[in-house]
Structures are given as structure tokens and as C-alpha cells.
Design goal:
Layout: H1 14-19, H2 25-36, E1 41-45, H3 51-58, E2 62-67, H4 70-82, E3 88-91, E4 104-109, H5 118-131, E5 132-144, E6 156-158, E7 161-163, E8 174-178, H6 180-186, E9 191-204, E10 207-219
Parallel strand pairs: 1-2, 1-4, 2-3, 4-5, 5-8
Antiparallel strand pairs: 5-10, 6-7, 7-8, 9-10
Length: 220
Amino acid sequence: MVESKAWDWKIVKNKQEQTWLEPSIESYYLIDRWQKQCKKDFLDLGCGLGRHTIQFAKAGFNTAGFDLSEESIRRTAEYAKAEKLDIALKVGDMLELPYPDASFDCILCRNVISHTDTAGMRQIVEELKRVLRPEGECYLTLGSKETWGFKQDWPVVDENTKIRIEDGPENGIPHFYADYDLIQELFKDFKIELVYQLEDFYEKDGKTLNSWHYHLLIKK
């Protein structure tokens, strides 16, 4: 199993920082869905700069934020203080979540649990199952084997994993990539409520780039 490595949030500033402070589109759907289901205890797994941590706390959830990066947690704590929100924040490794069994009704882990190898992914799935309550739900994203990153000549860890080599906050971080068959195998102990593959487009250095991710909603 590869060693976990955090994003280098210290170099995420200015325009890039603003991008990571804006909640994702699906977070608004999840808030509405989970409020209707009377879910209360929420974990933002891999909270980054706190965009969803703050958003869910403002929506009335009992919110916990968790990240491997001390810089991430420090900046999320500052954000929470400025918003006068009481949020439980912890630094740690998602391979061993520091929470008791059945702690959460709902979990969001967007663009985070792919930062490991295949063995690590299997362990993280077990941790999700452990900390979710019965009928608890988790929304997560996984890198797709259709995306450009899986086709790069980066160091190979295993048949599903490469180490990302490029300038930026993800340099040196392992990336796990999945296909639909692998998703079904990984989450066989959950009910898969939805799964779809989404292509994102973005501009960088005058070029149009794209990436593919799977989005899943699973229930224990």
C-alpha cells in the first residue's frame, strides 16, 4: 500500500483558492436530499479549504471536517471562526478514520478517496462502511480510466494506480482510477443508488483540457 500524501494547500492561493471555496453543484442536491431524510450528522471527508464543511454547517447539519493536510484544517478552522460556526475538525489519514463505528448519517468525499492505490481503496471502502450508520449515505467521486491522467506516462503503482507527476498541489500524489466493473466490485456491500460518468472541461495555459470522473451515491 502506498503512503498517503496530502495536497500542498500552501500553494493554493488567489484565483485557484477561490475555485476551491465554491461548493460543488451536487452539494445543493445532497443538502436537500439529506434534510428530507432527516439526516443530521455529516462528515466532509477530505475537506480541503472547507467549502462543503461550512456549507453543510450553515444548512444545520452537525458537521465534522477531516483532512490529511494540517494546512487544510488550519484554513478551514479560520473559515469556520469567521462564520461563527462550531465544527469538529481533525487531521488524519482516511485509511484509518478517527471516529467510532456508526458515527455519521451522511458523508461527502469529493475528489479525495482516489488519492491512494487499490489496496488503500479497499481499506477506505471498509472505513466508510464502518463509520456510516445503517441506511446512511455517501456521495463520492472516483477518477475514471477514461481520463487523461490514466493514460499519462507516470509511475505505475498497480493496474489501477499511478503517481501524478506535474507542477501543482497534487504532484507526487497517488491516483486510483476505476471503471464500472471495478466500482461494482468495490461497493458490493452497499446499495449503489446512482452512478454516472462525468466529463469536465477547463482552460489552462491557453488550452482546453478535460477529465472524466465517476460520481456515486451509495447507501449502507
